[in-house]
Design brief:
Blueprint: H1 7-23, H2 26-33, H3 41-49, H4 68-81, H5 87-100, H6 104-111, E1 117-120, E2 136-137, E3 142-151, E4 158-164, E5 175-181, E6 187-193, E7 199-209, E8 211-214, H7 219-255, E9 257-258, E10 261-262, H8 267-293, H9 299-327, H10 338-351, H11 356-364, H12 367-370
Parallel strand pairs: 1-4
Antiparallel strand pairs: 2-3, 3-7, 4-5, 5-8, 6-7, 9-10
Length: 372
């Protein structure tokens, strides 16, 4: 299999990296995350201009019909640059719209960058179990309930919402999906900054009118496939962040002097860097596999590969991040050093859409694994 990126994919990556290096520097990012808005309209406009919002959208709706592998290239660069704009939340929301069908107008708005989306899926009691839904919807699509840690909920123009129309609280079959405009009556949003400088929100729906996206019976399949797609994107973003923190640590070891020599000459530290590199490359291979298989028509294969990737990437992210912080010494946890921010982002990626333990359990419950 050829693991080299196509010319068009490399062009996307190069364009993003040039923008990050020139206009989205670490100091500029710090200004953005400490601003009242927490995101930059100018940075979002640049992402739109570069074609990033159009990339995953079908051509019929003004997009480029990009694959998950195309998105892997983009997410790696966003992870390397620690970009905090609501790109991930929007493109995962777009995947819900694509899988459910019949949402051409909204997809066109996503492609042109005029609509940001957020996925309101988790609840206070659900932890990583997306089937644990207490939010309810009436036959008239009126929704009541509270969603927590909604990534970029405060910046979204519309929400993808999971709500229960039947069954017990953890039943998959009773879950339906809806689109709810941010300005709909009965919707209230509490926006806040997260540990890694991103934005999240608590979103409350009090008899809010939604539009049916996928009815119970089909809703869970769409929900699971779309969040697997989201996990594949998160794995790619983690690779970009690990690439960056590894490079920064290597440079630090070359320049930090102790006992009259760069500390990178100490064999014990060279061994630790070698271990970091091995973890990173294993994680990179799994992230690539997830991007290839996340669109598989075999749902069990998709689940198995995506969960395996989230486990391996999560383990690698923790190891690489911890080693990088330790090798930087006390500086590794300061707000002034980029390494601390990459480590925080890697930590939050590991907790988003299921942590290592959750995906280990999910992997082990697949029938192909149980029958092996």
């Amino acid at each position: 299999m050829d693991f080299n990126f196509k010319e068009e994919q490399q062009q996307f990556a190069d364009a993003l990296r040039r923008w990050v290096d020139k206009d989205y520097t670490f100091e500029e990012r710090r200004k953005i995350i400490h601003s009242d808005a927490g995101v930059s309209d100018e940075a979002w406009a640049t992402l739109v201009e570069l074609g990033m919002t159009a990339l995953p959208v079908p051509e019929a709706q003004g997009g480029f019909d990009g694959s998950a592998v195309d998105m892997l290239v983009v997410m790696q660069e966003l992870g390397r640059g620690l970009v905090v704009e609501p790109y991930f939340a929007t493109v995962m929301g777009a995947q819900f719209l694509k899988l459910a069908g019949g949402q051409e107008a909204l997809l066109s708005q996503v492609a042109e960058g005029s609509l940001k989306l957020a996925c309101a899926l988790g609840e206070q009691q659900s932890r990583h179990d997306l089937a644990d839904v207490a939010t309810v919807a009436s036959p008239a699509h009126v929704i009541s309930g509270t969603k927590t840690v909604v990534l970029h909920g405060g910046q979204a123009g519309a929400f993808i919402v999971s709500a229960r129309t039947g069954g017990a609280q953890r039943d998959q079959d009773g879950i339906a999906l809806y689109v709810v405009p941010r300005d709909a009556a009965g919707v209230s949003v509490t926006d806040y900054r997260t540990l890694d400088g991103q934005r999240a929100a608590t979103v409350r729906f009090e008899n809010a009118q939604g539009t049916l996206l996928a009815a119970a019976g089909a809703g869970w399949d769409v929900l699971e496939a779309a969040t697997d797609y989201g996990n594949a994107l998160l794995c790619a973003e983690a690779i970009g962040a690990m690439d960056a923190i590894f490079a920064a640590t290597l440079e630090y070891l070359k320049t930090r002097q102790q006992f009259g020599a760069p500390i990178g000459k100490f064999q014990a530290l060279q061994h630790r860097m070698a271990d970091m590199f091995i973890h990173l490359e294993q994680a990179r291979s799994m992230a690539m596999l997830a991007a290839v298989k996340v669109s598989s028509s075999d749902a069990e294969e998709r689940r198995r590969v995506v969960s395996a990737a989230k486990v391996r990437v999560g383990q690698a992210a923790r190891f690489v991040g911890q080693q990088a912080v330790q090798l930087h010494g006390g500086m590794g946890v300061t707000d002034e050093l980029p390494a601390a921010h990459w480590f925080k982002r890697l930590t939050m990626i590991g907790l988003t859409l299921g942590d290592v333990d959750h995906h280990l359990e999910r992997f082990a419950t697949q029938t192909s694994f149980a029958g092996a």
